[in-house]
# Entry
Amino acid sequence: MRDPKSRAGRWVAASVLALAGLAVMLAGVALTTVCVLTIAYPLRLAGQPGLLTVTGCLTEGTGKQAHTTCYGRFTSDSGTIASRPVSYDGSLRVGVRLPVQYVESADDCYRVGVAYTGVRVLGISAGLFAVLAGPIGVAQAVELAVPRRAARWREARPLRALWRVLVVLFKAFAAITVVSGVVSLGTYLLTD
# Structure
């Protein structure tokens, strides 16, 4: 890489920093989207509530590529039993009964409770944290590439206010990420 003090070196470093900021921002958008779409299941706002009784598990692949899917009988809270085995993405002991939300269209189920809601909240806040970190990286790239012009932009009143809001949101989502991570990990360790 070029010397960051030279003009060309600053532009190369700024380009790399800007691309990294955009990549972090896009990853944050993807993570937030996935978690927002699936948070309704552990909150019992979507799907059909009931119990899954695990009857068997199947592991495909080996080593780090191993993936376990368990199957079982789903009995809804109203007493209806699913006509075919329901899958659960994860490893469980045969005979275990656990509360789940069943999604009939996918023949799949999701665990419910504080730990699983906390994981989704953790994903949402981490995603929003990344969405805010991306523009900060891009702003740093602009400042690195054209320091004189960036100083003038930084002094503009609306941008200063926006920057302060971004920093406050960044800190808030960082705190929410840490708290929800600790809560969901603690709850998961105490219940499983």
About this structure: DSSP finds four helices and five strands in the chain. Strands lie at 48-60, 67-76, 86-89, 97-103, 108-111.
